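ligand=flavin-adenine dinucleotide
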Amino acid sequence: MSLTRRQFLLRAGQAGGYGSAFVLMQSLGLLPVPEAVADSPLRLVDGKGTRAVILGGGIAGLVAAYELGKAGWSCTVLEARHRPGGRNWSIRNGTEVEFTDGTRQTCAFEPDHYFNAGPARLPSTHNTMLGYCHELGVALEVEVNSSRSAFMQSDKLNGGVPVAERRVVNDTRGHVSELLAKCIRKGALDEDMTDADRERMIEFLRQYGDLNPDLLFRGTQRSGFKIPPGADLQSPIPNDPLAMRELLDADLWLGTFVEEVPEWQATMFQPIGGMDRIPFAFASRLDSVIRYGAQVKRIRQSDSGVTIIYRESAGADQAADRTIEADYCICAMPLTVVRTLDADFSPQIRSILDTVQYDSAYKIAWEAPRFWEKESNIYGGISYLQQAVDLVWYPSARIFSEKGILIGGYSIEYLPAETSAASSLVRSDETYRSPARNGFTFGSLPNLQAKLDASRRSVELLHPGHGKDLANPIYISWGRIPYNLGSWISFDWNDQRALATLQSPDRRIYFAGDHTSHIVGWQEGAALSAHRVINQLGARIQSAG
Amino acid sequence: MSLTRRQFLLRAGQAGGYGSAFVLMQSLGLLPVPEAVADSPLRLVDGKGTRAVILGGGIAGLVAAYELGKAGWSCTVLEARHRPGGRNWSIRNGTEVEFTDGTRQTCAFEPDHYFNAGPARLPSTHNTMLGYCHELGVALEVEVNSSRSAFMQSDKLNGGVPVAERRVVNDTRGHVSELLAKCIRKGALDEDMTDADRERMIEFLRQYGDLNPDLLFRGTQRSGFKIPPGADLQSPIPNDPLAMRELLDADLWLGTFVEEVPEWQATMFQPIGGMDRIPFAFASRLDSVIRYGAQVKRIRQSDSGVTIIYRESAGADQAADRTIEADYCICAMPLTVVRTLDADFSPQIRSILDTVQYDSAYKIAWEAPRFWEKESNIYGGISYLQQAVDLVWYPSARIFSEKGILIGGYSIEYLPAETSAASSLVRSDETYRSPARNGFTFGSLPNLQAKLDASRRSVELLHPGHGKDLANPIYISWGRIPYNLGSWISFDWNDQRALATLQSPDRRIYFAGDHTSHIVGWQEGAALSAHRVINQLGARIQSAG
Ligand SMILES: Cc1cc2nc3c(=O)[nH]c(=O)nc-3n(C[C@H](O)[C@H](O)[C@H](O)COP(=O)(O)OP(=O)(O)OC[C@H]3O[C@@H](n4cnc5c(N)ncnc54)[C@H](O)[C@@H]3O)c2cc1C
Ligand SMILES: Cc1cc2nc3c(=O)[nH]c(=O)nc-3n(C[C@H](O)[C@H](O)[C@H](O)COP(=O)(O)OP(=O)(O)OC[C@H]3O[C@@H](n4cnc5c(N)ncnc54)[C@H](O)[C@@H]3O)c2cc1C
């Protein structure tokens, strides 16, 4: 595929959300349009003690073990870490963070604070995950993901002074409405519309853009106020409109589109106390089914079963290789790890492992007094910048309390080859578009300190005077996190044929994880992939028995 | 003012939020542009026991008494009802509702449920109210006011089948973007833009509207899915786009604009357990300063003080007229009530009382199992319809619990003259635009049962099969609620000269309440109006002493 074509698909994928590249490929005739069927619901078939070994105790592995356990299977989960959840990881006081390149950090937050280093949001359409929270008694609260009071900042807009998101959104709409009304008035759509439709369209645009009687956009109260309404005689005065040209220069659209992607839309939820309340709730039901500190090394299968060799490490010095046999295996580890294992996969699987690409998302968390609430009326939501650190997120846990956690950066970062164990994570600048370009700038910063400085600088740009209030940083770079080596399978990589291969068993080995679903980068994809595997296994033992 | 002019201002006021009529009048040269100064902050001056009698224990009266009390004033609040809060009223099991026309209802909700019959939302920009919640220890939670999963319904759209709000929002944007891109391509804006700007504008529109490579809008994942993304091979398929003509016919814009009005924007809050937690928190600090069951009848003032006669009713049969004297009076009752009193106001005040108009908002609440969550992923937010009952609101308290309160209707209702004690509430159909036209239809329904039926019908239209699940209705019609006789001063009525009069003392009488502010229909306006009066009183005793 030509670079242009590929970039185009990539852009469509980013602007429209995951999977729009698929749809586009379909509409371009690059893929056969499959029959329109929804996911099959989970059907549990009595396993009668059939043994399943599940590799990886992330959401996919936990869901598989939990449901198969209900259905009378005999399950073992091998999990390399000493905790459940995989990418679902909440960092608190005392958490040790170690990168593959040897970088070490220890979290020094105050006791009540947590930082969801991986997943932080549950969309209201993710019924499977919400259902598990309900079933397992994980208490949820509303997660506020967008706020019109959050800021947007570009050196090219408003002289570099941040503006509230409501100004970008509504001034853009005002300008677009004015321009279209003007064209219609000029007769540019006379061939396409009846007179009556034109009039209705113009009346609509007047409201849509809050245009003045001459159909000009001269600012709107929707964009907030220079002088807010009060109880004195003074009437409120709206902000002056931002110029369309500056808005185009600033290119802050991604931040305004996010809330139109169904999965980033209100109403979103979060477990009270940290996202890891979910895997811990699963783990408490699974108990001894999970073996922690069990690092899978070798995978072999025969006509009658699978044999897994793993290294069990109780402490730092004690490690021993162990063997486990089972009838079936569910491989729910990231492909970046799977490809490093000694395994007798089919050539089809091997070729996927050889070519797959993962992204490396990073997040930086700080502890700080809640100046964003007190001074800017920002309670939750995300500010966007065109800077090395291009996003500042205000987690909505414990709103109104004294201090909070601030996410000073969350984006896909360029990972230089020399620091990365997973060479496929290295991507050239070319394939990145804004804001991933900022991810390239960020990823090229020489060291941890430079990255923290960039983060502090972005917070300072948005909240002048408060860069200095940031304390106890934690930087997570998922491409360098052992046992993950990436944040998710690259949206750019997605390929319907590969997906079909990953969704079919390699003899007795079934692949699970969000990377085997259309819901990449979401726990819902991981959970539903486990359901798919369970249905496949159920059908298999049913037809066998 | 001609009807057209007046309607135009009214529309501008509605589309842009309160006060945009003011701004428009200013920009049309109808009002002098005042100097741009923000509200003066509250300054407390030692009252040294100066006596203030405060008429009405709504938010304005409570704030006045609370702050003056801090400053060493001797305050008495006369409140006709047997509870504090006025319009801030949460209805629970056992609450008796009685209209001026004799209609009686008793609330039969389950114990944990409440219905905020008046205020239900605190915007994050209302620092005064949020500050009081903090100061008084009123616990807040996020109130979810809009959800793209909520529905929009018109008989003219999609064959009458409700569509998720995300479809209306994003399909509209898609069509607008396509039309403008087309005009630009045709050269309609060649005079206004450079070649480079045109290209940038088109690239922006492609993203803004999620247009296809030919710059046509053919649907978008932002509008949700026919086949949602899953973990099977099936790719997601977005909904088919709604036609622009149908969207124009349906005229559901108001519902989509609401979230662009700063005061209806995320992040919003609500007190946990009911909005009345706020007045009860004030009341617990004020204690015996408030006299309940004290209905003001007569107001007189001299050069040295004010004399108020009120009727004190302890029980139904015991009532006695009492007199209270004070140095100053703060009149914080609705003007619909004030005008019925025997009072020696100035001619300026009297002429305002003679002409003022109030709106009559209504709300209908039901108790029901949370089918909207379980079946439609709606957690909070508001659905809009073009029906007699044109709005269904899903309060976000206790999300995920078994049953909840559903608001089946909240709008401004036409109040026929014969049923209304306050004749100024009678407004003709002419002055109403959509959706107030629905308010006319609703208000013309013959009786309570017909109104409840209309409410049930709207819920049934949005959630087929669930009309029958609605139980224990409560209908509040603010124009018929004693001691309020209206929901708020009419946005249509607002008049800068009248406001100036109401903001100046009538000798020793000061007017407070949201109707004396630019923040009509919000507690923030009531609270800030109290601050203004306190500042005025402080300046007065300071210059006197
Ligand atoms: C930065 C970030 C933000 C995200 N945001 C969200 C969000 O807001 N909402 C949401 O729902 N989702 C979000 N996600 C996605 C979500 O985290 C994943 O979809 C989900 O957690 C994946 O689960 P999984 O079981 O497929 O994989 P993982 O969680 O990666 O589980 C794999 C498991 O395999 C184990 N393992 C690896 N190697 C070995 C080995 N050799 N031997 C034994 N075990 C091994 C790992 O320790 C791990 O426990 C986010 C992810 C990231 C990284
Ligand atoms: C349907 C509805 C929805 C609303 N939604 C919101 C919202 O979401 N958020 C928000 O912040 N605001 C909202 N408001 C507005 C808010 O309720 C008001 O702005 C605020 O409560 C007004 O306070 P007040 O003290 O000015 O008036 P009131 O609350 O009306 O107080 C007047 C007081 O005077 C008393 N009184 C009347 N007559 C007499 C008499 N003769 N003698 C003695 N006492 C008397 C009354 O009993 C009452 O207690 C809403 C209002 C309504 C009606």
